[in-house]
Amino acid sequence: MGKFIRIKKGFNINLAGKAAPKVTPIEHSDTFAVKPPDFQGMYIPKVLVKEGDVVKAGTPLFHDKRHTNVIHVAPVSGEIVEVKRGEKRKLLEIRILADKQVDHKPFKKYSTSEIAKLGAEEAKELMLEAGVWPNIVQRPFGFIADPETKPKAIHISAFDTHPLAPDYSVLFKGEDVYFQAGLDILKKLTTGSVHLNLHTTSEISSAFSQASGVELNKFSGPHPAGCVGVQIHHLDPINKGDIVWTVNPFGVIQIGKLFLNGIYDASRIIALVGSEVKEPQYYKTYTGASIKSLIEGKLTNDHVRVISGNVLTGTRVANDGYVGFFDSYVTVIPEGDYYEFMGWIAPSVNKLSFHRAFGLMSFLASGKEFKVDSNTHGEPRAFVQTGVFERVVPMDILPTYLLKSILAEDIDEMEELGIYEVIEEDLALCEFVDVSKHNVQKILRDGIELLQNS
Predict the structure, then answer these.
(1) Which domain holds residue 440?
(2) Given CA atoms 418, 420, 426, 429 in this order, what sign does their dihedral have?
(3) Helical packing angle, 440-453 and 424-433, nearest 10°
(4) Predicted confidence (pLDDT) per residue in 164-178, tens digit
(5) Per the structure, how many domains does the chain have?
(6) In what order do the strands lie in the sheet with 78-85?
(7) Which helix (H) or strand (E) holds 269?
(8) Domain check: are 75 and 157 in the same one?
(9) What is the spatial distance between Cα 121 and Cα 238, in angstroms, rounded to a whole number?
(10) Of 251, 248, 329, 287, whose CA–CA distance to 74 is shortest?
């Protein structure tokens, strides 16, 4: 057994629209997409297909010109109907019109006993060839892991504390064998430990509770306790020169399915949540599913904001957009395109806020579910130092000074103040509680890119 860690700092954002434990299949006569912008740090993607090509699930679509062996593949079989580009011919997405029955490209498969004898290089080679490698994210910086490096440890967060996060016992029900196979493969890729981090009070999927050969750690406390960066900080902090890999549970299972079944299996369960969803629940689909197939006929009205992921770190998508590669839920909230006269100064029992002056009900009724919209209730202003960031970031860093050092482009100061330990999700709560209305996550990413290019 590993460590037990109690997180005290943070804030739970309790929103209306949690998913009921009901899973419904979606008919797959629609399009799916793989989107290079989902992958941080990608240099220039080189497209390997053209419109009109017929592909199988697992067929290579593109790779990064900097890491040509890291292949991104088709989640379903069908016809390439669009290679969508933006300004300066930047590749935005590759759309596939899916077959009714998914046809998989075959790869070599292994029995459980064969996996135990498999070498690290052979395992890595198959993961790269079959396209499951992009599930592995490297810290620092949150980029796809460099296959040429060896991490000091691998971390898997087995719970999610973001607003309206899905229940992992629903998402990964019946995946025990594949999860364990994925863990057995990942153990070969590091000289250190594979950490499986659980929550002490939430329901634990049997896939996690029965896992063997890993270090089980338990966490308690509010969001961002479920963020893997926070967990790494409390277990084994990242210093300059350290490399740590992280994988979400879906990625572990996908790796396991590749080795046991010999296919790239992108089938997954996605939750549709939020106050504007008539019946929030789970849907069985594939990675890169179209938003239209998920929300059509399921919303209370059309004046909404659709977010791939959660309200803190998710990406706004149009109704004809697609679910992000790493996202297991889609959140729908009211659009906030209105002006509220002196709304920032009027206390209310119906507003969710970390600050007592503005959101009294957040403290008086902790179990209340709030209906929030996308209105920021203010515009960016002077960077006010209130000390509130330090109250929601459960890490031994000074986020206010870190952000100011990024704005000043002081690389030495950025390194000293802990930029190697954080990516956007770790500081997303700072953006929520910031009275100055700054785009904290963008500032942090700008700092990471500055450091990377220096």
Answers:
(1) 389-453
(2) positive
(3) 140
(4) 999 999 999 999 999
(5) 3
(6) 31-34, 91-98, 78-85, 54-55
(7) strand 267-273
(8) no
(9) 25
(10) 287
